[in-house]
Design goal:
Blueprint: E1 6-9, E2 14-17, H1 22-50, H2 54-98, H3 106-109, H4 120-123, H5 130-170, E3 184-186, E4 190-193, E5 200-203, E6 206-209, E7 215-217, E8 222-230, E9 234-242, E10 245-255, E11 262-263, E12 268-272, E13 283-289, E14 292-294, H6 297-300, H7 306-316
Antiparallel strand pairs: 1-2, 3-6, 4-5, 6-13, 7-12, 8-9, 8-11, 9-10, 10-12, 10-13, 13-14
Helix pairs in contact: 2-5
């Protein structure tokens, strides 16, 4: 049974029951709902202002972790850039200088790798840190290009080095006679009075006086183009070293190589003698560059130690007469 409510009617001086009209009931409901909504919104506002939802809190934590990982990655990227620049410096300023090769132009090393359109898929995602992400990817692309160019540069340097090693091995660079066997060195290069012809003529090499049978060494890697008995040079060997260099070894008592043989620096190719137009046992040694005779002393002296070089100078100072 519903509870009946009364009110005091001053006109009748009686308590009369309260009659609830539909309109009043409707207004009461509306008021209740309005207050409830306002209270609910207030509670939600206070909650959102002072408390973070669990899911959002997890996402924020993950975001912080990702930012930390991104920073670590950028630090490593900076280290990789520093290493790449060090490789470039050594390549251009050391290796290529030693090999007498031009450095890689800066325009090639610093060439572009495309703009932000290359990362359109990232742009389409409308990321909050879009600029940072794209900038990092662009730096990675640039680093990859740097390393690719450096790799190709090392391939080129390796090829140049191989060619240089062949050239250095081929270049006449040692004495054809060991200092231990050498008794005299005739350093007359150019015009001199010929001891057999008794007239002035050109002398295109150096004469090494040594006992008959003393080993004669090839002064660089090369190909024997001639080995024969000449009326002037006697037993003579011609070696083509490539790169414009040739050497000749004359007046040998005998030679032990033949035309077409490949010889290496320091290999015995013959023995000292006095064949041909000669007045005593010795080796006549010539160096030619692009078919022009040049003084051999400019080559083999760099192969000697200080004591050996001083001994060679003492030997060459002795008063001698030409032998061929």
């Amino acid at each position: 049974m519903a509870k009946i409510r009364y009110y005091y009617n001053t006109e009748t001086c009686k308590y009369e029951p309260i009659k609830v009209t539909p309109r009043a009931m409707f207004m009461n409901v509306i008021g209740f709902l309005t207050v409830s909504v306002i209270l609910a919104l207030g509670i939600i506002y206070i909650y959102r202002t002072n408390f973070t939802p669990l899911k959002e809190s997890i996402l924020r934590s993950e975001n912080q972790d990702l930012k930390l990982e991104w920073k670590i990655m950028n630090d490593k990227l900076n280290q990789a850039y520093a290493s790449a620049e060090e490789l470039e410096f050594k390549d251009d300023k050391i290796y290529r200088v030693i090999l007498d090769t031009d450095p890689i132009p800066a325009t090639v090393r610093e060439g572009g790798v495309g703009g932000s359109q290359k990362h359109e898929d990232i742009i389409e995602q409308n990321l909050e840190q879009e600029d940072m992400v794209i900038n990092t990817y662009q730096r990675m692309d640039k680093l990859k290009k740097k390393l690719y160019i450096q790799s190709k540069s090392y391939d080129q340097v390796s090829n140049v080095l191989n060619e240089k090693e062949k050239m250095w091995a081929s270049r006449p660079a040692i004495q054809p006679i060991n200092n231990k066997e050498l008794t005299l060195l005739h350093t007359t290069f150019g015009r001199r009075f010929h001891p057999v012809l008794k007239r002035w003529s050109n002398h295109d090499g150096l004469d090494f006086t040594a006992p008959k049978g003393t080993p004669v060494y090839a002064t660089g890697d090369g190909l024997v183009t001639n080995a024969y008995l000449s009326s002037t040079y006697g037993n003579v060997i011609f070696v083509n070293h490539g790169y414009g260099y040739q050497t000749r070894y004359a007046h040998l008592t005998k030679y032990i190589v033949a035309q077409g043989d490949h010889v290496t620096r320091g290999q015995v190719i013959g023995y000292v003698g006095s064949t041909g137009r000669s007045s005593g046992d010795h080796l006549h040694y010539e160096v030619l560059y692009n078919l022009t005779p040049i003084n051999p002393i400019n080559f083999f002296q760099r192969d000697l130690g200080n004591e050996e070089y001083e001994k060679l100078i003492e030997i060459s100072k002795q008063e001698t007469i030409p032998l061929d």
